[in-house]
Amino acid sequence: MYRPFTPAPTVDAPPIVVAFAPSHRQQVRALLTDSRVARAFFGQVLRDEALDAWIADNWEATLEADECRLVALGTHDGRVLGAGCVAEGTLSYVVAPTDWRRGIGITLARELCAQATRDPRGRSLSAIVFRENRASAALLEQLGFRFAGLSHAVCSAFAARERLRYVLSQSDSEGTPEA
To answer: How confident is the model at residue 1 (pLDDT cuts 50, 70, 90)?
Structure first.
């Protein structure tokens, strides 16, 4: 049964968005090992060694200034509610299933876009989502991303399923809604 995506209410207290630090690694890893998150992000559940390799390659090995990696922390307990990055012009993010539909993803993605579009090179951003992940597609559209077509695998960790590519140009991001 098709059920259209409807935005959920936001969290009572917005999360604190901070730079990813090595101390966040275990919580981010735990987030990515949750089967619901893994299926939404990778399209499949990864074995431990594949997940560790992906984290090392995509989060820890390239913490340079031109690539931002952020985590959203709960204001009361400091736990990682979500994590995201912009690397090589591509936005990606994950949110703990217990915090889905609470505004964590939009808060995190908005901050990632804001930091990435401060880049004086004026590059555009892209994001890739699985076709069935309507919530993530709606989040991107809310931020001003535009559907740009189908995407091919960018990482061997991702399942061979149809993915949608969205883009946000520097001029698009200047009008990104704040709500």
So the answer is: very low
Q: Is 120 exposed, middle or buried (0-12, 13-18, 19+ CB in 10 A)?
A: exposed
User: Looking up tokens 């990104």, which residue turns up?
Assistant: 176
* 118-141: average pLDDT: 84
Among the listed residues 140, 143, 135, 141, the one whose alpha carbon sits nearest the alpha carbon of residue 102: 135
Residue with tokens 């893994």: 38
The answer to whether the beta carbons of residues 93 and 109 sit under 8 Å apart is yes
pLDDT tens digits, one per residue of 50-96: 888 877 776 665 554 456 677 888 877 888 899 888 878 888 898 99
At position 69, the amino acid (one-letter code) is: R
Single-letter amino acid code for the residue at 136: S
Helices (H) and strands (E) in the chain, counts: 6, 7
Q: Where does the chain have alpha helices with state H?
A: 25-33, 35-41, 48-55, 104-116, 134-142, 170-173
- Tokens linked to 100: 């889905």
Identify the residue whose tokens are 């590059």: 123
Q: Which pTM does this prediction carry?
A: 0.76
